[in-house]
């Protein structure tokens, strides 16, 4: 996992006023909404004797440990040790670590790293405004880097998805074309075709498709969009649980059905299909070794893997930068 990045970690509707525990980045976290509705995220371990704070409750807008009643504010500072009496001051070293949170577009982000490295708000797709969506959580037994790379992989489609989205035996891959749009965001255009005996076209022989055409978009570190048409998209957030587990938050967006009564049924049907397709991938991605992808792991990549190579290059760079800043601080 790359430090000093904003990561989507949950869907907004999962976080309520009641504290909830979840594992992310190999750490146990507790999240809840304070009185103002803002999402708070602390380490899920009481500094007194290690109990999971997610088993506690909110009392006067503080999270109270169920064991001996220590109360923590939204910064993780302990504000009450009941055994010492409510008049006693609480020593400064009574605290639990916290993460900075951000909520937008129905997702919760945390800044995973050092707060002094926060420069801006998290990036998101700017072309989903006004669309309706449905979300499904899908657990994978794989590192999030492998799950992401699968969504950037054009050559697998006619094999893994031969009965669904990969029908037609388009095994030959022209390009693909990768275009960086921002420091942390690229588009990729897929040009799969029947093997007609020709040589695959090189990426630089291909042009960007016109605006509105099908493309894939990726935003570091963990957001992906399949821009199918202006009216229909699939978005994935790849949420790291630990080195061997990821939750794929899969969303279907559309704006062609506006009738509220029919919408849930349409969303359900599309999500059923999208999850079926994702499970075609999951079956093989879970077998990939090494578990964690890096730039140089001895894989024999070919031209069609260009988007994966682009992903790995920036990932490697960000990992190095994060290491460097850890050495300095
Ligand atoms: S373990 Fe939390 S108050 Fe004692
Ligand atoms: Fe796939």
UniProtKB/TrEMBL annotation:
Residues 6-110 form the Rieske domain. Signal peptide: none annotated. GO terms for molecular function: 2 iron, 2 sulfur cluster binding; dioxygenase activity; metal ion binding; monooxygenase activity; oxidoreductase activity, acting on paired donors, with incorporation or reduction of molecular oxygen. Keywords: 2Fe-2S, Dioxygenase, Iron, Iron-sulfur, Metal-binding, Oxidoreductase. Pfam families: Rieske (PF00355), VanA_C (PF19112). Gene3D superfamilies: Naphthalene 1,2-dioxygenase Alpha Subunit, Chain A, domain 1, Rieske [2Fe-2S] iron-sulphur domain. This is Aromatic ring-hydroxylating dioxygenase subunit alpha. It comes from Vallitalea pronyensis. The lineage of its organism: Bacteria, Bacillati, Bacillota, Clostridia, Lachnospirales.
